Amino acid sequence: MQEQFPAITSLLDLLEVTAGHERDAPAGINRWLYRGQAHGTRSLIASAGRLPRWDLSQSSSPNPDLDVFRAWRLRASFYERSIPPNDWEALAVAAHHGLATRLLDWSLNPLVALFFAVTDAGFEAPERDGALYVFRVNRVIDPEKAALDQVDEVAVFFPAGHTHRVIRQRGAFTYHPEPARPLEEAAAPGQLQRYTVPCAAKCDLRKQLDRVGINFEMLFPDLEGFSQHLNWITASSRRDQIEAESAD
Predict the structure, then answer these.
(1) What does each C-alpha distance from 60 to 63, 147, 176 come to in angstroms?
(2) Is 68 found in the same domain as 33?
(3) How many CA atoms lie within 13 A of 30 on its CB side?
(4) What is the pLDDT averaged over residues 140-161?
């Protein structure tokens, strides 16, 4: 169950949202996760749940998506030698490289989450409202003890950080044993909060985030991230120029 809250139109709004979240938490304890979506109307569903539904009556396994992951593990080391031996860490690497899994991306940093809420594809001005989700951590997975098919409720997995992106983005995951079930339905009362990010505020919010160092180049520390950041600077500058000329 999710709760609907007011819109976020500035970084000050975001600070007000998060001000009380960690105030009483001991050092090193994370009680809240943050997720931004540029298309705010999309449900919170793990990527394995967004694939066409499995017909379990025709399957020899109750968890065919986990069978796909295990097949991925058998061949993944051919492409990447440093696949972690732990199933949970390997699942995080698989998700990072595009495999549909039971994991849903979150961040411990609300600024990072807001960046993804305001970053639409393409160079045109955003036309859709985004959303910032806040999720309270109730159950944490111990990757050394839990098996992938033995977690029976939505829980949080904190990866060790086998990629630079996970580290930069302060990444975490929710694990969804029923991947097609939206988190909006699975969450406990008061566990999930939703804040609208209006499309009209996205461009300015992205500039504010860039001023505090949250941009493609920082979050994606490779040539792709650097290139995307330069593309955004170019498009943003041109858009500002066009608006200035129109005002004249």
Answers:
(1) 9, 20, 21
(2) yes
(3) 18
(4) 93
